[in-house]
Design a protein that fits this description.
The protein is an alpha/beta fold. The chain is built from twelve helices and ten strands.
Amino acid sequence: MRGRSVGSPMMGTQVSEAGRLPRLSGSRNANADWMSALCPRLWDVPLHHLSIPGSHDTMTYCLNKKSPISHKESRLLQVLAKALPCITQPIVLRWSVTQELSVTEQLDAGVRYLDLRIAHMLQGSEKNLHFVHMLYTSALVEDTLTEISEWLETHPQEVVILACRNFEGMTEDLHEYLVTCVQNIFGDMLCPRGEVPTLRQLWARGQQVILSYDDESTMNRHRELWPAIPYWWGDQVKPEKLVHYLERMESCGRPGGLFVAGINLTENLEYILAHPSQSLKKLTLPNLPYLSTWVREQSPGPGRQCTNIIAGDFVGADTFVNDAIRLNEKLLGC
């Protein structure tokens, strides 16, 4: 079991004289240690009152043309995949990929919420678990969790929030197998559920992982697992309608704990079939400046209309991660 006692951020972390957040550059790994570089006044703010950048459908960067279509997809798509695989597969792939950075690159870029959609393929081996978003990834869940753990070992004061969800094809035995993997891989890094901690509390206990588990019965059997984190999903193709949805959700009041506002655009099968030459990337990238403007207007904190985790697609493509991190300056009142 891994464990360490960490009392304060790493020596050498630079905080500006004005007490603001450190300047963020455009390099891909500039935010690898942004949590430990926060103004000390923010070390005592609970995580659900901080602004935390996240990635939607984190693992889709490893999909490829050989990735099988999920058996949970519509019958129409299944028929098309069997009848016209050379046409159907590339189209589905273009609309399934939401990220281009690997999980390590996302962490280096500053992402601290990872959206892990887990599945067991019908044709897969007994214990091998994959990720899924319309297609199954070749990446195995156990390997990816190990990669995250190794990154955390080299960044001992960064904290990640892992949302394990979807659970396609999972039996009770497979849930228990997955939880055992989580326990073996992260060990004492795991923060047991309870009140949402602050960074200072996590550092003092050597904990770096909050893992939410979207299967209530399994979660209730293991103190290391947290309840499912609410995700505001607009299910919209047009960014204006997505922002309208998010603002409507804000007007209703934020959840009491950790929660996610998703700035990811979403297509349905009819839209995909009507735009076969397009892709989710082509849909998303031109709209990122509009969505980033909405992000910059948000405020973290305990207020009724405050945001917490903000998750997006293609997180390395624009200023989204920097924008979300910089929102924490608003908590300083400077």
